[in-house]
């Protein structure tokens, strides 16, 4: 609709344009113009009812801008220093175009297509840059690429940024007219120099570092910021990628010259074996690093090659492709060293940890403690540890027993260092590095308040090497339960070890472990009578969940149960027979037995002898259980059986603890990891990796990957596969099992 809009005659349009042109001339000459006058006339033209006048005005202003560009072109090409004059002329032109674009804001809204700003710089390209070949027999881009005065380059290439022939590719003109040629020149100018520098790799690294530093120092003057990454890629291609084979061979040659002092491991393992037959720990010489008073490890002769590596790494690590070479070299080195020395470092926790420290020392010195290489070390060493037999999980579980118990049999060669240090001051312990590197939050230092703190660091370091942590958690909870139920549990050390294992995603394990420790702590506060000590445990958090048979409780135990029922009146208590023990005095001899065995022995307080039926009816255990119990008592020698009747035997020649003679399947299973859960976890992990497998292949991979803690059980494994199907984790499809994401 044209309501409120007036038509404009040619005379009216001409008058409006003359007013606009008058003000634009003031603007182009560097003077002040009336913005209100320009805006009002533009508004009059654009709101008239006469069609297409706004387009006519748009091109009128474009003609004015083009004529101004022609005036500047003449000044540029007549100047002696035409590039300098180009920069000055473009600066004036740019100011004019920016000002006109702002004054024409309403016109830009009315005209479809380019804004006045984009049109102005396209006209500059048409009027000036396209005429460079005509007047100077060259192009501005070519002159800039070969320009020795780099101070004039930046202003000139800024003009290329403003020329946008394709709105979808705003940097196209700059890329095509300058960037590609400038990058080619950088690559070509070093080709000849590089041929003469590829001799000694350290010398070459200093050369590369110097040239990279120089090019980066001038990049702001010869490139727009959008080209910096491309420039670095060109430099990497010239200095690194084109020489990759040479660099890899030379760097790996230096890396492989560093020989790990594994003879120390052999010495330690022999001394460990020798110490098994000694009552007093011996003192060992610190051979890995010489002892000193400063904070840094003294560099020995074998570290010379690591120092050479550090020089190369310092000079080249700023380049991505060089870092890839370093990572590949270090990965190969760790793999080869781990495979070469597995027979030495796999002999015990001590040798395993010290070998890891030797590799960590390579990172500290050769790779300047770069955290990325600690990750590589962890990944590769973890892979090597998966092949250990016994498994790393089993070794760490046994090591945790030493930490919370008697630690004199582990790291005995360090005892002198700990004995000398009684105030928690700096310790010159071997294998620990400078004490400044942090590995996943665990500080690796030399200050320890005692041997146990050092042992916890060993545990924490090797714990990170375990890949299959969910299996280790089950094993650890079982071992933790066993330790806690022994007399005199070390709750302080248990809490410390649990805190070391806190990670994202293992909250369930941590909660169970902490609850188990808390249960023991509460039980210790409740129990005052050492002869009638009862552990009160939270059933859901303890892994020892063997099915307890229903039996008739002996009166002495029933009395204890009533006492604890009154203390825990808000909780339902039930006996965990497989976890407890009873100390029974028979003819003056104290004998330790489990609760089931005691339930049978208690019958002899009232009978001289009992038969199978009598024991069965009195204890209510069931035929299978009572048979196992009676067999254990006979095997131990506490009972003798004659013609179906059982009586007390010669107690003076039997063992003082007969619990081990009872080997009921349900009880023996709780002292091992849950095989069913273990097989479920292992099979699901294998299928998740392979997606689809037949049963035979699953069995083969399971047997190849599982630990030596127990033998393969076909029945339990088949049941585990069935449960995985019931849970919806896997599905059987055409004689194969498929992992369901």
Automatic annotation (TrEMBL):
GO MF term list: ligase activity; ubiquitin protein ligase binding
Which stretches make up the Cullin family profile domain?
461-634
Highest taxon, organism lineage:
Eukaryota
Question: What biological-process terms (Gene Ontology) are attached?
Answer: ubiquitin-dependent protein catabolic process
The residue range of the signal peptide is none
Q: Which InterPro entries match?
A: Cullin, Cullin-like_AB, Cullin_homology, Cullin_homology_sf, Cullin_N, Cullin_repeat-like_dom_sf, WH-like_DNA-bd_sf, WH_DNA-bd_sf
| Pfam families, alphabetized | Cullin (PF00888), Cullin_AB (PF26557)
The family note in this entry says: Belongs to the cullin family.
Its recorded name reads E3 ubiquitin ligase subunit cullin
């Amino acid at each position: 609709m044209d309501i409120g809009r007036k038509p404009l005659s040619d005379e009216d349009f001409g008058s409006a344009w003359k007013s606009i042109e008058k003000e634009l001339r003031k603007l182009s000459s560097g003077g002040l113009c009336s913005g209100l006058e320009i805006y009002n006339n533009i508004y009059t033209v654009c709101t008239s009812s006469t069609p297409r006048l706004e387009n006519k005005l748009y091109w009128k202003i474009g003609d004015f801008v083009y004529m101004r560009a022609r005036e500047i072109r003449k000044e540029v090409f007549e100047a002696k220093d035409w590039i300098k004059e180009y920069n000055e002329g473009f600066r004036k032109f740019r100011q004019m175009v920016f000002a006109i674009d702002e004054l024409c804001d309403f016109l830009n809204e009315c005209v479809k297509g380019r804004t006045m700003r984009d049109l102005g710089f396209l006209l500059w390209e048409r009027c000036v840059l396209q005429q460079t070949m005509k007047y100077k027999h060259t192009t501005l881009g070519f002159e800039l690429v070969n320009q020795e005065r780099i101070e004039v380059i930046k202003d000139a290439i800024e003009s290329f940024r403003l020329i946008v022939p394709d709105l979808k590719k705003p940097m196209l003109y700059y890329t095509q007219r300058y960037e590609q040629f400038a990058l080619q020149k950088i690559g070509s100018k070093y080709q000849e120099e590089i041929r003469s520098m590829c001799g000694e790799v350290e010398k070459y690294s200093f050369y590369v570092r110097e040239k990279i530093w120089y090019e980066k120092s001038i990049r702001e003057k010869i490139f727009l910021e959008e080209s910096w990454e491309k420039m670095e890629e060109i430099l990497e291609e010239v200095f690194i990628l084109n020489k990759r084979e040479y660099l890899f061979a030379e760097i790996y040659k230096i890396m492989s010259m560093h020989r790990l002092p594994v003879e120390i491991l052999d010495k330690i393992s022999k001394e460990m074996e020798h110490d098994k037959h000694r009552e007093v720990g011996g003192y060992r010489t610190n051979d890995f690093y010489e002892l000193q008073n400063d904070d840094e490890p003294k560099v020995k002769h074998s570290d010379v090659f690591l120092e050479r590596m550090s020089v190369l790494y310092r000079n080249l690590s700023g380049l991505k492709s060089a870092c890839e070479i370093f990572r590949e070299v270090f990965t190969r080195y760790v793999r080869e060293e781990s495979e070469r020395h597995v027979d030495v470092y796999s002999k015990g926790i001590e040798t395993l940890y010290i070998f890891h420290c030797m590799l960590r020392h390579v990172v500290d010195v050769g790779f300047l403690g770069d955290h990325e290489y600690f990750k590589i070390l962890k990944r590769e060493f973890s892979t090597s540890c998966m092949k250990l037999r016994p498994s790393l999980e089993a070794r760490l579980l046994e090591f945790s027993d030493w930490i919370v118990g008697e630690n004199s049999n582990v790291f005995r060669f360090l005892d002198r260092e700990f004995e000398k240090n009684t105030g928690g001051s700096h310790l010159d312990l071997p294998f620990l590095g400078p004490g400044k590197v942090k590995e996943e939050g665990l500080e690796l230092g030399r200050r320890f308040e005692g041997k146990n703190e050092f042992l916890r660091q060993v545990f924490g370091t090797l714990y990170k090497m375990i890949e299959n942590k969910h299996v280790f958690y089950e094993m650890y909870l079982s071992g933790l339960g066993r330790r806690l139920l022994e007399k005199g549990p070390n709750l302080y050390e248990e809490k410390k070890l649990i805190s070391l294992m806190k990670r994202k995603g293992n909250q369930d394990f941590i909660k169970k472990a902490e609850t188990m420790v808390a249960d023991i702590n509460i039980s210790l506060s409740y129990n005052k009578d050492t002869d009638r000590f009862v552990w009160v445990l939270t059933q859901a958090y303890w892994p020892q969940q063997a099915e307890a048979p229903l039996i008739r409780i002996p009166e002495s135990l029933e009395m204890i149960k009533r006492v604890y029922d009154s203390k825990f009146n808000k909780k339902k208590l039930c006996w965990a027979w497989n976890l407890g023990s009873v100390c029974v005095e028979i003819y003056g001899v104290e004998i330790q037995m489990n609760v089931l065995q005691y339930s049978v022995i208690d019958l002899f307080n009232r009978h001289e002898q009992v038969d199978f039926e009598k024991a069965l009816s009195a204890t209510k255990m069931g035929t299978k259980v009572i048979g196992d119990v009676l067999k254990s008592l006979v095997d131990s020698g506490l009972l003798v059986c004659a013609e179906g009747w059982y009586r007390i035997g010669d107690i003076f020649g039997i063992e003082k603890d007969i619990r081990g003679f009872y080997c009921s399947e349900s009880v023996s299973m709780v002292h091992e990891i849950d095989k069913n859960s273990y097989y479920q976890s292992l099979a699901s992990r294998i299928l998740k990796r392979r997606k689809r497998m037949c049963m035979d292949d699953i069995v083969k991979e399971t047997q190849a990957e599982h630990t030596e803690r127990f033998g393969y059980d076909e029945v339990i494994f088949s049941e585990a596969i069935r449960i995985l199907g019931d849970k919806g984790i896997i599905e059987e499809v055409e004689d194969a099992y498929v992992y369901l994401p």
